[in-house]
Design goal:
four-stranded parallel beta sheet, alpha/beta, binds iron/sulfur cluster
């Protein structure tokens, strides 16, 4: 079951979904909000949102969409965001690589990043002249927070001359210490593109364990993991597989190797989306990733059945329509991403190396 491959992949077409209602002068505010509530309900009903709930958030989404036009702002949302953010206000939705690419190409003067801190930092590194706002300034990530720049320098002292690759889930300071960055969509391609037969790979020990069987290079790893994906267990999925034998199991490569081993496909969130789009004949899926992804796919593929459990990322869920609106109207200093020129320069080098290598798709 093959998938199309490419060097870089823009956010999937169906995720460019914002069709904000123009606050046309001919419409009253009530009429505008009614149209906005209808637009939201058309998308959100499939994930259980009632018309009343859509009417309640319509004033917020209408105001944010109007502000985007006034500020020349673009809203980027990671696939793990809630459906009101994804379908209410986002211009682009996707994984880290897709959004990094969008961040680099957008003509907007302001980027509002609905995601966690390292993602907004990535947008700033690629667009240093733009204003980058992070509505939830304390939205961290268990992977990114597991390693510091000084710890990377110490690893380099311990393994002189060995190239260093960091997963995109790292701070800008950590990226600046590395030779190349990678995402779950291109991990193996980046590993293989580096010279030598050894590689320091930080910070995800599970992703490194999932890649090790696919490369001859010896991976020197770090003790980081994603609190969402490490939670999924093999026994749980064996039980699901027995209950839903027709379902295809799609797993993120941040999961444990025993889970990835059982999967029909393992890779990035965008890779999962493309897998589903390419397989009309598979009607039932079991996703081993964050809950937001399941909701997004339920809307994108209403004819498919998504079964099983999911885990919420507490960091991603710190973003809400209210803090997006507040950050766009009166940002607090912590909501604006600022990085030193040296960090931007170093991290840019690592990101450019990744963008040059592109996407290699799934490992399985
Ligand atoms: S899902 Fe995991 S990797 Fe992604 S932001 Fe949350 S903790 Fe970090």
């Amino acid at each position: 079951m093959g998938l199309p491959t490419g060097q870089t992949v823009p956010a999937p077409k169906e995720t460019r979904m914002t069709t904000p209602i123009n606050l046309a002068e001919t419409l009253t505010r009530e009429q505008t909000l009614e149209l906005e509530a209808n637009r939201l309900h058309e998308r959100l009903a499939v994930v259980g949102w009632s018309m009343l709930e859509c009417e309640l958030i319509a004033p917020l989404t209408a105001e944010i969409n109007a502000l985007k036009r006034r500020l020349n702002a673009v809203v980027l949302a990671h696939s793990y965001q809630t459906p009101d953010v994804i379908y209410g206000i986002a211009d682009h939705v996707g994984d880290s690589l897709g959004l990094s690419t969008e961040a680099a190409h957008t003509d907007a003067e302001v980027i509002v990043f609905c995601g966690v801190r390292f993602m907004a930092e990535t947008a700033k590194i690629l667009s240093p002249g733009k204003r980058v706002l992070l509505p939830a300034p304390d939205a961290g990530c268990s992977l990114a927070d597991s390693i510091t720049a000084e710890e990377v320098r110490e690893l380099k002292r311990q393994h002189p001359g060995v190239p260093v690759v960091c997963y995109v889930n790292t701070s800008a300071e950590v990226k600046a210490e590395c030779d190349a960055c990678c995402t779950s969509a291109n991990t193996l391609a980046v590993i293989e593109a580096m010279p030598g037969d050894e590689l320091i790979f930080v910070p995800d020990k599970l992703m490194a364990a999932n890649m090790q069987p696919h490369t001859k290079k010896r991976l020197i790893t770090w003790d980081g993991s994603c609190i969402v994906h490490e939670d999924f267990g093999e026994a749980e999925f064996r039980a699901f597989k027995e209950q839903y034998p027709q379902a295809a199991l799609l797993a993120h490569t941040e999961c444990m190797p025993s889970v990835v081993e059982m999967a029909d496909m393992a890779g990035s969130t965008s890779g999962m989306e493309r897998f589903i789009a390419a397989h009309d004949e598979i009607k039932q899926y079991l996703l081993v990733t964050e809950c937001g992804m399941t909701d997004k796919l339920k809307v994108a593929f209403p004819d498919r059945d998504f079964v099983g459990s999911c885990v919420l990322c507490p960091y991603m869920k710190k973003v809400e329509l209210r803090n997006v609106l507040q950050a766009m109207t009166a940002p607090r200093p912590k909501q604006e991403i600022t990085l030193s020129e040296d960090v931007i320069k170093g991290a840019r080098r690592a990101l450019d190396k990744m963008l040059e290598i592109g996407r290699s798709e799934r490992v399985k």
